[in-house]
Amino acid sequence: RIECRRQRQMCIRDRYRNESALELMDATLEVEDLLRGEARLRVLLGKVARLDILGRREEQGTAIDEALALVDADTPADLAIEARIAKATAHDRAGEFEAAEALLAACVKETKAAGDASGEANARGRLGNVHFALGRYEEARAEYTASLALAREEGDRKQEAMATGSLGNVFAVEGRYTEAEPLIEALIGIANETGNRRVEGAGYGNLGTIALMQGRYDDALSFFERRLAIARETGDRHGEAFAVGHIGNTLREVGRLDEAYTHGERYVAIAEEIGDPQEHALAIGYLGDTLSRLGRRDEACACYERQLKLALEIGDHLGETKARQSLGSHYLA
Question: For 69-78, what is each residue's pLDDT tens digit?
């Protein structure tokens, strides 16, 4: 009975029917007398991954804590590391960067000592994400490069895709678009080969960001619309937030301000729903930019004040800088 449920949940998960997969996982977990130890931990980690996609942070945190409570000396090393990385990623999502960095650095050290190249690749990629969020691009690049080398060594195509795209993002934020685009296109190629629609969608979003930065607004809208369609298809709330926000930004740049404002409000709502304070702060700042263009200066300043407050609370230095610059330009105008 347990094995049948687990097989069905895997099939559903592969089709990204996240809610149905979660229902089966919960039903499996309820059979406590038959599902213990390693088997229970595996199902819990699958549940954590689905909840992350759906942005259900409170439930995810509970599942992570239950998973970590099952980790003991007899737990397979790869599962123990996966549980710790899940906890670190939750810290990252919550803007708790210091805690995320410390835990991921420990995971890197542990997997390296154990000769677990796949686990090390994953931990280094996640650590790179923390550095990237904090604007420490050289450190991020070093971790992504190491992650990519390890992933290729292990033949881990999923991690290879993530590291390749992440390196592309570093080049893009530095304005090195000719170096960034081939890496992101490679990410999309690997995602297509492996059937990973979520990663494919992320790639289109990254191409859209480059097009937006270069002033290619029609291309940007096309890429962001593809990103949005895939996010909704796969139930990826973070991807949906990203796409809605960036469509709004692009519409603002081409002067379609009413539409931009509608997308901005929706972006703020999604970011708040998924409980990601860094995303929420970014969304509020974007909405402020649109309000500024609409001539609604007091409302724009209120948004920047909210953005600054959130950024200070979570240690988001880039968000803090952006909010202060926006407030300064308004007060001096």
Answer: 989 888 888 8
